[in-house]
Every structure is written in structure tokens, then in C-alpha cells.
## 1
Amino acid sequence: MSREAPARFCERRRVRFPPPTHLVVLVHGTEADTAALREEVADVLEPLGLRLSQAKTRIGHMSDGFDFLGFRIQWKRKGGTNKWHVYTFIADRPIRSLKAKVRALTGRTSQQDLAAVLIRLTQIMRGWANYFKHAVAKHVFDRLDAFVWWRLIRMLQTRHRWSWGDVRRRFTTPTGRWLPITADGIELFRIASVTVSRYRYRASTIPNPWQPANPV
């Protein structure tokens, strides 16, 4: 939705509106039913000074999926079965955004203090992971964990002119176990360590605020 014209009119008077609102309407019916409902939604929003953006409003099937608030919501068949479920994945855009922030902090020629880099990476990744930990995120967290580790290792190799043998000597124990990357007592936050707790279907156990106090 968009309120572009009212925003332009009032911003000249230093009045700020919130950003455009994102709206998803799920319909149990045909594509024609959905198209008709779209017009009804537009009629309801018009008195509020809101309008549907023609460029961003679309009708799609749940099996095609849609992005909403950083998540990719899609109806898919569960692997190895004939059962279909609605899954909440992490969309591509926030993953690209996170990687861009990591790249900006871990350039091979960067001379930033390692402890400061680790602190900033922890702040970024912890908040990102806490937001997305209720999605189907375990494999994504694992890949991002490896991505961040390799970015830091390559940065350190360039900075200190380390060979791979130097890296192993500094970050492994005599038994070959890998040690965490640390600096001044600050340890690299491992995003793969975040517990993924996907939402559970609760059906009628969700409280209904409209339930009458004394049902007949």
C-alpha cells in the first residue's frame, strides 16, 4: 500500500507518516474470488487515505510463495511424503543484506581492530538470528556461520601474511580441534549455535479475545 500523495503534501509541513504498510490477505477460494476481494480491500482502505500499490500488489498461489517482512512463506510438499505444509523460510534479500554487512567489516585489506570487528559482527548476527530463529533456518545458519568464519580467516591471512599452516597452528589444538577466533577476550559469535524453535500449530489453544464471557 502507499500513501505517497498525502506524505508529499504533509512532509512540506514537517509532518512525517510511517513507512508504507505491508498487507497480506489469505483467501480460501478461486483466483476470481481473490481478484474480487482485492477491489473490496481497496474500497475499505480508500476512506483511510490509503491505496493499494498497483506495482506491488499481486495475486499468487501459496505454492508459489511470497515474501513478507523478510520471510519467505510457501506451501510445499514435505520431503519423502505426500503431505503438504506451509513453511516459513528466510527470504533471499535479508541473507544478501547480512552478507553485505559482513563483507564490509571483513575486507581482506581492512586494518580495523579485530576485537572491534568481532564485537560488531556479534551485534549484527545475534540480532539477525534472533529475528529469524523461528523460521526453517538451521541450514541457513550453518552456511552463514561458515561464510563469516572464512571471511575472517582470509582477512587475517592477508593482514599477517599467514599460510594455511599458520592458520592451523594458531586455531587448532594439538589434537586437531578447531579453536574459536578471539581477540582481547572477545570471541566470534557463532550464528549456528542459535537454537531454531519453529512455531507450532496451536489451533484452538490460542486465546480468542472475541469469545463471549458466558457462551450459551
## 2
Amino acid sequence: MTAATGLELADALTHTAKRIRRAALHRLAPLGLTPAQGRALHVIAASDGTLRPGGLADRLHIAPRSATSVVDALESRGLVTRSPAPDDRRATVLHITAAGTAMLTASREAREAVATDYFTALTDTDRATLLALLAKAEAAHAPDSEFTRKRGDHPHDHKHGHGHHH
């Protein structure tokens, strides 16, 4: 087995990501949620009612005007509400509704089904190894990225050779 080049790895990851994204979009279509709305709903849910629209724009790396459009769409469907900020009545904070939480759950289940289907050929050890390797590569470029923070650990911190099962 010859070593893969960086370009081969990048091409394989790009192809994989596109296939998973297409399948996820197909599964999410019946929910009527755009990817931007899904990401916004996730961020709003995680904020516990403390997030302002400007903070949402920052977290999603989009223009404030775009964040307002996304929130308007979510609010019109009853998935989020706006209310005055407790510390500044002129400011607005965003809250997820029960319907928004249900939509987030349905979205997560659809994405999970796609991922489970895609990675079904891999063993548990294969999946753990792949995730650890991707986290290691990401940590080398962005040690504090959302991906490496979500993992809760840094692969280069492991001292007992995890992932080397024979």
C-alpha cells in the first residue's frame, strides 16, 4: 500500500463531504429547512436565550442582514422567537420554541441517518480512528476550531497509543 498524497486525501475528503451533503439535503428537504436555517437553529438552541442577532451573524460567519433574513424565516415558521434582552430592552435576544426544538431533533435524526448509512462499511474502530485522524489534522491548523472543541480532546494529547488496536 503506497502512502496517499495530500492532494489524494483532499480530493477524497471533498468527494465524501459532497456526497454526504447531497444525501443530507435530500433527507432534510421534507422538513423545509435550508442548511443556513438548520445551522442557525442549532446555534440559537445552544445559546440558552442569550444570543442576539448580531452574535448569530458572527457565529455563522454571515452578514447581519443575512442573519436577520434567516431569523425572520425561522420566526415565521414558529421555530424561534425574539424578545427584549434582559440587560438592554432595546436589544433583542433569540429563543428556540418547542416547535424549533422538535425541528432540530428531526434534522439531527435525518443527518444521523445519512451519516450512519454512509459509514456503515466501517467498523467502530475504523470510525474512531478516522475521527481521531481528522481531528489531529484539524488541530494542527486550528487548535481551537469548533471541530476540535466538539471532540473534547486533542489527539496529540493521547499518551497511550489510542487507535492502534490489532
## 3
Amino acid sequence: MVRKGSTAGLSGRRWIIDPINGTTSFTRRWPLFSNDIAYEDEYGPAVGVINMPMSRQMVVAGRGQGCWVLTGETPNLKSGHRARVTERTSTRGARTQALNPAGWPEELLIALHRQVFLMASMGCVVDLVAGRADAVVIAGPSMGYEDVAPLPVIVSEAGGRVTDLSGGPVLNGDMTVLATNGLLHEALLDLVDGLPRSRDLNALDDGV
């Protein structure tokens, strides 16, 4: 059983651990879940780790230490490579991964679909920092803090930028996410400005 909660300490530092990020994918045997870890100190996000066991990929980052992509059954820094986002400057056709699109309102889907190359999320932020995607958008049902906690240090250390869809700090926002190579960020914020972020998934439930 996975228990969700917190244990108070005295150091002013904390670990945030999400044993299974993507519970629905995990329970349905879809290989799209991850194991996430973040560490925060008095200066903010300090360490981020995203492990995707089914694809044998792990991303690790430390504040001021860079971001690294590790692969294989026994990943280590010696066999990994430095993560770096793309240098794309045009939103037109930008490879943009969509997480939880079933929960997106049509206005958000249409606005992005008209401008970017919108595709289903396979590796999400892992693909962003590995240069396989130019941007990632997460909307729909609210994420938990533990889902987004590793993102600031991972994305920034790979040269990118991450906020919520309003452009505010991702850890203090509405738990939506816009993660980009940085060069596309303002243009994509303008594209989704004022649009709804979620729809009622219960309205789609036919009882089956």
C-alpha cells in the first residue's frame, strides 16, 4: 500500500517522494508511469529525479550541478549524458507533448492544435530535457505537489523554463504545467492565455 502524507522535521529541508506518478497508467499496465523524487532546502528546489522504469530512462538534476539523462538497467552518471533542451524558436510545428488531454477543454486543445505539433505524452519532461520535445503542457485534473516538485530543478538545469499555464511559479500555481526550451515559453503562454484548463470528466462517464 502506498501511503500519502508528510512527516515533520526540524532541519527546514524536505524530501518529496512520489512512488508511482501515473497511477492510472500503472494499474492499467501502460508503460507511462514514473518514480519521482525531489529535495528542497532553505533556498528552494535542490534535487530532482524522474525514473521511468519501463523505458529504462532516468533524469537526475542538482541545483548548479546540471541535468543528466541515464539509461539502461543500472543507470549511473558514467554512462549518462548531459541533458539539454532544443533551440527551436518558432511555435509553428513545435513538438509539444500533451499530458492528460482527455481532461482538457476543447478551447485549449484547439488553440494548441492550430499552432504546434501536438502529440500524446510518452516521456513528458524526460523527453523535453533529452531534446525529443520542444514543450510539454499538463492540464486537466489537478496534479499534486509531489507530481510537479522535481520539475523546477530538472528543467532549469537542462536550460529550459517551467511555470504554470498562467506564467507563475509551478510549485505555487494551479498545478497546471508549461515546460519548454525557454525560447518558446512566452509565445506559448500568450497562446493559452485566458483559456480554461480543465473539463468535467464525470460528464463522460456512461456508467460502464
